[in-house]
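Practice problem: predict the structure.
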Amino acid sequence: MSGKSFSKVLVANRGEIACRVMRTLDAMGIASVAIHHAAEAGAAHARMAGEAVEIAGDTPVAAHLDGRQIIEAALETGAEAIHPGYGFLSENAGFARMVAEAGLTFIGPDADVIALMGDKISSRNFAQKHGVPVAPSVMPTEELDEFVRQAEAIGFPLLIKASAGGGGKGMSIVREASGLREAARIAASEAQRYFGDGRVYAETYVERPRHIEVQVLGDGEGGAVHLGERECSVQRRFQKIIEEAPAARLPASLRDEICEAAVRLAKAAKYRNAGTVEFILGADGRFFFLEMNTRLQVEHPVTEMVTGIDLVRAQIEIAAGKGLPLAQKDVRFEGHAIECRICAEDPERDFMPETGRVARLRVPDRDWLRFENALDEGRAVTADFDPMLAKLVAHGPDRSMAVERSIAALKDLALLGVTTNIDYLGRVLDHPAFRAGDLHTGFVSEHREALAEAEPEPGILAAALAAAAMGLREFRDLVEAVPEPHATIGGWRN
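Answer:
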């Protein structure tokens, strides 16, 4: 398929993912347009683009969620397509439809497919219809009493989830009947507050589950391929912090079964562009469909590093009508890759988000390393956006080497001025259970004490404080100042 070509693309996002998309646009000879709120004036992604358009909103996030304003920016700058990145409007069916109605190309799936797969209930029903395993569950009803009755009939433990949400919002685990009614009420309230949709459902909770996801590419005409699976089990508050490809200790036959289920779903939906089918895997080898993310994933670099395929380029080519970049038999996998999400948060305070100003940034330079970021020394880290600052991605010939290289790179990475989880990530990677591939979504909670930062010995702490104090100009000036009354005498010698 020859398709068309884009000469200019607007990137409807910010930060590291906007920079990531623009790198590929530049390599393809396609001009880029950035958008930014006034609070982001001079940001890396705005400087990197060929053009930058300021968007307005009561808050920076509100500006990035204003689809009409973004489409106007694309039309005014002559962009023919919009790449949404991830987050913000990337899985908004209404926005995708507006883009198409404006005569622009949305670099992602069709609006109807986003609506189908973006809703946890409709996507679950669709998956079940097409032979993809789903966990026993109860769909929402108008009556809470009926919902509770049906949920109790499944048995415990149960996972209560928001139908329209993600990121752990509106989600809770219920282990006995006495807590079911209140958990359902709270989940519905949270779902309404965060997503404007109070529907919740309950499904069998798999103990010590692994989170396995499959990267797929679809041509929109029933053709699809997979680019292997990723392990995303290491999470805090239901949000991923370490991802890797391929998954650790996954039998080849089970890997094939999971990947084939993902492709079957993508083909049935006539999925177009890049997407990810997520599964929960139990210790007994049973796996269940979790959801489909109809966009590029944060963790896409690990797939790129083991396949050598530029997923953003594939997205752009598929959106331009050029079809799939390769057949399934042509997909090759080499080595192992691990991604660590660098976040402005304090692991010692339950991963509380932190703010500050980037005082120093030093990134190790290795041919097996990628550091996806949009950081500048001196730039403020605020509470306006998600606390993820960057992604450190290491590749190795095998998992053991990928782990060693990741740990070494984290040690060499310097990001000063704001509290981050860099040291914590190193402790996770170095934990015997992680090295052994004994992973599940409760990993962080199970090993909380072992992963906690050790208290320094008093003597070491005192020496560190003294060294830090000597580095402050104010302290040196105070120490070296001539004390009164001698200072009033004038020049003198001891």
